[in-house]
Amino acid sequence: MSSTYILLVELMLFLYLVRETASKVEFTNVKCTSLDKEFDDFEYCYLKSVNRSYKYLSLKVNLYKVPITKVKVNFALLKRFSGYKPFLYNITVDACKVLKNPKSNPVFVFFHGLFSDHSNMNQSCPFDHDLLVDKLPVSFVNRHFTQVLPFPEGEYLFQSNWFAYNVNRAQVNVYFTLS
Fold it and tell me: How far does the signal peptide extend, from start to end residue (predicted)?
């Protein structure tokens, strides 16, 4: 057998095992930080646990210098190994271009898909209104991390930095576990 075939079989086995182990996402914390309070500020940023099975994330950032015509976003997924370390993805994209042509960056589409159905950040630039993520349920995120693209269990940090006009204006960190 060729080494390529053996590698392919090992990869398929790994993906199958990863899919079998990653079964439930649980939000553990969210931190929203405005890095330029004259440009933007978070009105709210919180997790709410309604009952044992329903928990959601909500945030609203007020934009003070609209319209915003140049936006870049850096998304990174980190996994906890004696501190949070990079895990698979760390990308920076021109959000205006990618929102106009989503097929140009499938990794961005995956991460944006984690919250886009519960957000008003669905159109391309310019952004001329406050931005919000409203009641993003953990069950929606769970589907993405266990069925769409399975991940191994562990503690994770989804870190995002939001740049306007090439200046980092805000950071949103969402902590979660896969068990």
Answer: 1-23
